[in-house]
Every structure is written in structure tokens, then in C-alpha cells.
Amino acid sequence: MFQSLIKLWDKGLPMTKPKEKSLIQEALAAGKSAQSEELWSLVELLLERGSKVDPEWVSEGFPGAPADVRPFLIRRFLYPKWAEEKAIWIVDVEEMFPNRKPAIAAKADEEPPMLEQWMLDEEEKSLRMQKDFPGFALYRKTDRGVTEITVFRLDSPEPFPKLQWGDILEERGRVGRSFSIPSLWTRDVKEALEKRVKAHQQPPAPSPR
Fold first, then answer.
1. Taking the CA of residue 62 as centre, how many other CA atoms within 13 Å lie in the half-sphere pointing to its CB?
2. Do 144 and 173 fall into the same domain?
3. Is residue 208 part of a domain?
4. Which structural domain range is residue 51 located in?
5. Within-domain flag for 176
6. Per the domain annotation, does 177 fall within a domain?
7. pTM assigned to the model
8. Are residues 24 and 116 in the same domain?
9. Beta-bridge mates of residue 170
10. HEC profile of the chain
11. Among 106, 150, 166, 177, which is most buried by a count of CB atoms within 10 Å?
């Protein structure tokens, strides 16, 4: 099936198929042994030629798709939808089923919270499992679609980006989880967050006369 799709590609034929399983799903199922970049290039081509995906397949977490292609699918089919909502999302693309509820939902006309303070507040509430990852990639809606804006480390001295509604924070560098530790953040990350919050709360030094 994968080779036949490549031949269709070479001939420049339209590649749409009005069946329950789209050509994209068939290509992903048939091309599991292919390199993820090669397979994703084919998916992009199929989309350009008008191939569609089953919304139910998307909502179920892309069953049958190779694991190394799943992050591409999440960014391509879910991020644009999430970026339209008045919310902030935190996503682990390595999970089989990414979290479908926003981490922060807007209330009335409030501004998005300061990320550092929110992260510490979450730890106090014990709402989440222990995470062990050093940073985020920020995805945001732009004129070019939802794109990666920046990557930042949680323990970096550099300022965090100011959040906007619709932002998607993609976890980067996760190396494992620990369910025995009640804390949400590692010690280094927590100390860095606390320093940031304290620095933000300190009044500016008076200007010399």
C-alpha cells in the first residue's frame, strides 16, 4: 500500500478516497517501517491533494498511527483547534492520548496568569503527577498558522514568555516520571520558579536623586 501511494505521488494523480478509512490512515498503517520524516512528507502531500481524516480517528488519539509520527499528527490536527480557545494547554506529545482538557481556562475577561506563579500554585494543589522534564516549546497562532515560537528551560535565568490565550506549551526533554514523589517539580526547577516569582514581586529600587 505504501509503495502504491508513492507511485500515485510520482504520477501526480489526485489522491482522495471516499471511504471510512482515509488514504492518510492507510498510508500511516502501511508505512510503519518507513522513516517518520518520509512518512510525514507523504501525509502532507495527501493533505495538499485533498485527502481528509476521520474526525473520530483524531478524537480517539490516531489509533494505528506509528508512535514516532504521533507528535506530527497532534501538532497538525489538534493544535490549530486548541489555539482558537481561550485557554492555555500543556501537552506531552509522547503520551498515547494527550491531555484533552486545557491546563488553564479563562474566567471572564481575565488575563493569562504568570506562568511561574501558576506552576507553583499547581504544586500546592497537587493536581498533577510528578513531571520530570526541563522545559517547554511554546506554540502560538500566527499569520503562518500555529508555529513554534520559542523553547525555554524551566531552570533558565532567561525570562519566561508572557502567555497569551490559545498558547500551547509542549513539554520538552522528559526523561521519566516518579509517582512516589508528591512534589510536582524537581528541586532545581522549583527553586528557579520561586526565585522568578520573588523577583517579580519585589518593588523596583528607588531611582537615585
1. 25
2. yes
3. no
4. 1-68
5. yes
6. yes
7. 0.76
8. no
9. 91, 137
10. CHHHHHHHHHHCCCCCCCCCCCHHHHHHHHCCCCCHHHHHHHHHHHHHCCCCCCHHHHHCCCCCCCCCCHHHHHHHHHHHHHCCCCEEEEECCCCCCCCCCCCEECCCCCCCCCHHHHHHHHHHHCCCCCCCCCEEEEEEEECCEEEEEEEEECCCCCCCCCCCCCCEEEEECCCCCCCCCCCCCCHHHHHHHHHHHHHHHCCCCCCCC
11. 166
Q: Which residues pair with 2 in a beta bridge?
A: none
Instruction: Please tell me the total count of domains within the chain.
Output: 2
Return the residue matching grid coordinates 528551560. 153
Q: Residue 9 domain-assigned?
A: yes
The rounded Cα 116 to chain-centroid distance in angstroms is 19
- Name residues whose C-beta falls within 8 Å of residue 130's C-beta, 6 or more positions apart in sequence: 177, 178, 179, 181, 182, 183, 184
Cβ–Cβ under 8 Å, residues 182 and 153: no
The pLDDT profile of the chain, 209 residues, written as one tens digit per residue, is: 455 555 555 544 444 444 456 788 888 877 666 677 888 888 888 888 888 888 888 888 888 888 888 889 999 999 999 999 999 998 888 776 655 788 889 987 889 988 888 887 876 554 444 455 678 999 999 999 999 999 988 877 778 899 999 999 998 876 555 444 445 667 777 788 788 777 766 555 566 65
64 shares a domain with 83: no
Identify the burial level of 125 via C-beta atoms within 10 angstroms of its C-beta, where 0-12 means exposed, 13-18 middle and 19 or more buried.
exposed
